Amino acid sequence: xxxxxxxxxxxxHTPAASQIFTTVLSHGPLTxxxxxxxxxxxxxxxxxxxxxxxxxxxxxxxxxxETRPLLGRPASLVRxxxxxxxxxxxxxxxxxxxxxxTDLCCRIRVARHLxxxxxxxxxxLASLAELVRELLTEADGFGVPVLGCGIxxxxxxDRAQGTVRYSPFLEWRDVPLAELAAMxxxxxxxxxxxxxxxxxxxxxxxxxxxxxxFAVVTVGAGIxxxxxxxxxxxxxxxxxxxxxGHITIDSAGPPCHCGRRGCLQAYAGDAEIAARVGxxxxxxITDSAEALALAHAGHPGAREVYARAGEAxxxxxxxxxxxxxxxRVIISGEGLAAYDLFAEQIRDAFTATAFGSAxxxxxxxxxxxxxxxxxGAAATAIRGFVRADR
Length: 390
Ligand SMILES: [Zn+2]
Known about the structure:
The chain is an alpha/beta fold. It has 3 domains: 66 residues, Orthogonal Bundle (Arc Repressor Mutant, subunit A); 134 residues, Nucleotidyltransferase, domain 5, CATH 3.30.420.40; 157 residues, ATPase, nucleotide binding domain (Nucleotidyltransferase, domain 5). Helices cover 41% and strands 22% of the residues. It has a 5-stranded mixed beta sheet. A 5-stranded mixed beta sheet has the order 14-13-12-15-16, sandwiched between helices. It has a 3-stranded antiparallel beta sheet with strand order 1-3-2. A hairpin with a 2-residue loop joins β13 and β14. α10 crosses α11. The chain is globular and about 75 Å long. The chain binds zinc ion. The site of zinc ion has 6 residues, from loops.
């Protein structure tokens, strides 16, 4: 197969152009004056950056009768032309892969998922190729190009290199996923940590729109955290920023798969909760749905395990609030299925552990299915396409 060629390049690879594009994407339609104000740029800089984007069809400008002033020219509104291009986003979990085809506004047009027969990189790449092929076939009907594919994976991901350094659920180490997937799919590929990808989608379209500092905390198989500081999604120097799953809650606590004791993960990870519920209730438990059913049926031992998990999550969130002072923490992930069992403990432990004004941080819950995580992956592909610094 030939090496992937980017059929199209974003016409203005400057920080101002990508900032203007993402401002219009999140907040549009906007007048040029609003774009300048929100992006903190001069009117001249906006005019200069917008022109090639309009010429290439990524942005369109519509005359807007609503804002017509009494005197002078009517203000026109700038918006992203969603139908101009398509992107693919893929979220890989331990046993399934979820894929979406989105437009340039990151609206989901088609969603598909496939079971993963095994977790070996070769098998996952074969399933990925099949899923992308299906989505590309669907894309043919839209008559516009697919300009990139974003892949989201749990664990330590080096976005710049496109390498999965360590993914505990897939048991992968140092897999050059972007390179392999680009060869398999023929598309430009970006790879990112799954929680960071979800955070990009929340920043552009979700509960993080308009906030300069916020965090996304996900509970489920793993406990993850995406951080936005001064408007940027933070990866850190070693690509592990936000690994709150391995914050120590109690150094004498239960053993964690990382080799230490008492990590947040050891209290609140799905598999860890299920195992503990099995131990306490003396019932053989095979998955978290069974543990959840026992707790929902009122088994006191099972309910206690969820209460302890909630306390640990609340303390983990307070640690994030104390370190970074976010305006909001968005709690999501498949673990929200148990939210009624630990919501109170999360809030109480958060309030008890957050220092001073950090306790004013707004905690919101957002149930986001795996298609939304795949949409986050598509958002990273769009970001990769428009950003000057990739
Ligand atoms: Zn650990």
